[in-house]
Amino acid sequence: MESQRFRVLTLTSLAHFLNDGTFLLYPLLLVYYESVLKVGIVFLGTLAVIYTLISGLLSPLVGDFADRHDIDSFLMFLGILLEAAAIMLFALPFVVPSLAYVLIALAATILGAGQAFYHPLGGAMLSRTFGKSSGRVLGINGSLGSVGRSLMPSIVTALILAVGLLLGLSVVAIYMVAAALIILVGLRSFKRGSVSAVRSKSEKLDRSYYKFLIILGSIVFIRSMFTTGTTNFLGDYVYHIYLSKPLAGVFLTIGFLGSIVGQPFFGWLTERRGGLFSFTITSILGVLAFLAFMLIGKNLILSSLAYTVYTFAVFSGFPVLLGYISEVFPRNFYTVANSYIWGVGVTVGGSAGTAVITGLLGVGYSLTFSFYLMLAVGVLSTLLIPLIPRKKT
């Protein structure tokens, strides 16, 4: 039993590392597409909206399918395989610049599809395997995702500098395919444990849960407009401050180190004090830290520190939100509930935030103005938290 738990935690953590490693890939490559290939920033921003929208809208379908079948390990493998294919396609515009717009659009579409899989699947697998102690485990697992998210910009930047864009991105894609196969083989014996853990077609969620799901999902949606919208343009924002592409990649790595510590901490806090308490604390701290980041301006050390505190707080959603779901929902609805909160709330909300910033840039507003507007949206989401039902009524 313990060996099975260890295997599930280890391999889902590897999957989280791989999946979240792609989170900052497009914001980093956006800098190269704009400065090297002269691809328009509005086009690139629009694609950021599209691929996150695809991920968010596809996620509930993945979650619903997963809750009706017992092939979680294959679905997890499939998601990572799609992400690897997207990375290969992202490299091709530098080989065939005349097809840059088509290739970037295709790669972004496939990336969005691949990113729809991990979070609802991984969260549900861990919640089912570890039960009441899942908060800390989700935090540990989420921390590995944060390591991937933090390291990938610097790894990709180093590979690009060492061997070029095509070969560098190809190395990352091949590594992801190999790791995905290890996950598929290692988790092939994972089963949900009972017939009741696989939902029948006729089984419905009680209406009392929908109010909770709609209100929490709406607030998460608004918060994610702020967090993901600004993150998608962070590399470009930093680049225009310091005029250095490598420094933009390093800043993304340093800034996201906070979430490596934040995920296990807030996973533990969620287990001790509950998901609502942790969600409130992370929202308040995130708004204050981002405000500090914007006010500091061109001071690399202090701005990096402020952004690290920001990611410590707001990029702990995996243990906080999915731990919260496991407190409230029946076990055989974990995956689909996760997929609505994560897929629609986090991902589609992020897509909406990216769309707002893209639109503002398109009509001539600056990134600085756009970031302050998104900060105001973050404040609004925090003020709405008291509306979340304390119980599913």
Outline the low-pLDDT stretches.
none
Structural class: mainly alpha
- The dominant shape is globular
Strands, count: 0
Average per-residue pLDDT, rounded, comes to 86
Q: Please summarize the sheet with the most strands.
A: none
The string of secondary-structure elements, in order, is HHHHHHHHHHHHHHHHH
Q: In DSSP terms, counting alpha (H) and pi (I) runs of 4 or more, how many helices?
A: 17
User: How many angstroms separate the termini?
Assistant: 36 Å
Helical percentage: over 70%
Assembly state: single chain
> What is the beta-strand fraction?
under 5%
* Rg for CA atoms: 20 Å
Give an overview of the whole structure.
With 393 residues, the chain is mostly helical. The protein contains 17 helices and no strands. The protein has helices spanning 2-21, 25-35, 41-68, 72-91, 100-114, 118-130, 134-163, 165-186, 208-232, 234-242, 245-255, 257-273, 275-296, 300-314, 317-328, 334-362, 367-383.
Briefly, what is this?
By secondary structure, the chain is mainly alpha-helical. The protein has 17 helices and no strands. It has helices at residues 2-21, 25-35, 41-68, 72-91, 100-114, 118-130, 134-163, 165-186, 208-232, 234-242, 245-255, 257-273, 275-296, 300-314, 317-328, 334-362, 367-383.
Fold topology:
Blueprint: H1 2-21, H2 25-35, H3 41-68, H4 72-91, H5 100-114, H6 118-130, H7 134-163, H8 165-186, H9 208-232, H10 234-242, H11 245-255, H12 257-273, H13 275-296, H14 300-314, H15 317-328, H16 334-362, H17 367-383
